[in-house]
Amino acid sequence: MTHIALLTSRVRVEEKLLIAALNRRNITFDIIDDGTLLLDLAQPDPRWHTYDAVLGRSMSQSRGLAVLAVLEQWGVPVFNTATVTATCNDKLLTTLALLRAGVPTPRTLLAFDAQTAVQGIETLGYPVVLKPITGSWGRLLARINDRDAAEAVLEHQETLGGYQHHTHYIQQYIDKPHRDIRAFVIGDETVCAIYRTSEHWVTNTARGAVTSNCPVTPELAKLCVRAAHAVGGGILAIDILEDVEQGLLVNEINATMEFRNSIAPTGVDIPQVMLDYVLSHAREGVLR
Amino acid sequence: METTSTTNGTTLTANCPECDAAINLQGLLANEITYCPDCNAELEVLSLEQPALALAPQVEEDWGE
Fold first, then answer.
1. In the prediction, which pLDDT does A203 show?
2. Whole-model pTM?
3. Which of A29, A129, A150, A157 is the right S-S partner for A165, CB 3.0 to 4.6 Å?
């Protein structure tokens, strides 16, 4: 009998949908709170080997990645892999992976002090976007419209931020049509996509964007699968920007995707498709 | 390693740590976020075996997708 673990920090709507999908299939499962774990690195706990697969659903990216890395080393099948998760958790590593694979992405500069960062920003031309390398839900994104704003935000990053904020990730601003695209890639298929529409330039649903179905054209499907493969593949949400001149650009990739607002508009049972993928690969004993 | 499972028809209550209202935990899972119907505090279900609630933690810098 198949036995699954859901690794969580908090039980969100997504986890409850996954639990409902597991129950519908009569699959036994445990919910494991990542905050309670004590892992003896050289002494694999045999209980982990009772699972056919561990699905990483941690909201804490640092905890989730750490646990996936340990389990992977212990030979427990994990979804997504630690390497894929590490790449997606880090915008710099994601951009590098996309560039290596030749996947179109907004032009990005990297700088390590404020003065050099301003030079970089003015190379791209205003506006630009400053992003923390780690972080999610559209937090701490800044659209920089002029030098005053650039100097202010960079000073705040260097004075108030942790060391991660001292690496300045400077992205070309894409004047998108009040929306972006989020596409869901599971394995080798782009299973569905949504538009996230907002009057605000940040179009995350966590920031109030409204969702609607986005037709998966052959172009979109192919681009998203290429992007997913670029970071190692698995169960991934690809964020795409539409640029009038450059076409579709892959912006970010999420390894612990939220999907609560995407099922109704697309009509796709995303948790069910996720489980199909996990179960088929767990049964094969394939480590991706 | 702590694991949790869903409740099975037993009436479970715990008190809100903010206003002490009795809150029904029926149908909730450990680590799920809920709200106090009296004071609207955001709460986390700590345990169902020994029903307990705590104020939900603020979003941390590394939380996300």
1. 87
2. 0.90
3. A157
- What's the gap in Å between the CA of B65 and the closest CA on chain A? 5
For A198, the domain range is 175-275
Q: How many residues does chain B have?
A: 65
- End-to-end CA, chain A: 22
Domain range list for chain B: 13-55
B6 close to A (CB below 8 A): yes
Task: Say yes or no: A55 contacts chain B, CB-CB below 8 A.
Answer: no
**Which CATH number characterizes residue A55's domain?**
3.40.50.20
Residue of B nearest to A13 (CA): B32
Which residues are bridge partners to A143 per DSSP?
A129
CATH number, span B13-55: 2.20.28.160
ipTM metric:
0.75
Is A137's CB within 8 Å of B60's CB? no
Q: Which helix (H) or strand (E) holds A123?
A: helix A114-124
Nearest CA-CA distance, residue A82 and chain B, Å: 14
**Do both A221 and A246 map to the same domain?**
yes
Mean pLDDT of A181-203: 95
Q: Which of B1, B2, B29 sits opposite A11 (nearest CB)?
A: B29
Residues A180 and A237 in one domain: yes
Do A163 and A195 have their domain in common? Answer: no
pLDDT digits (tens, 9 = 90+) for A39-65: 999 999 999 999 999 999 999 999 999
Return the structure tokens found at A5: 């673990």
Measured CA distances, A223 to A141, A203, A226 (Å): 25, 20, 5
Residue B59: predicted pLDDT: 81
Q: Which of A64, A79, A94 is the last residue of a domain?
A: A79
Chain A: residue whose CA lies nearest to B65 = A256
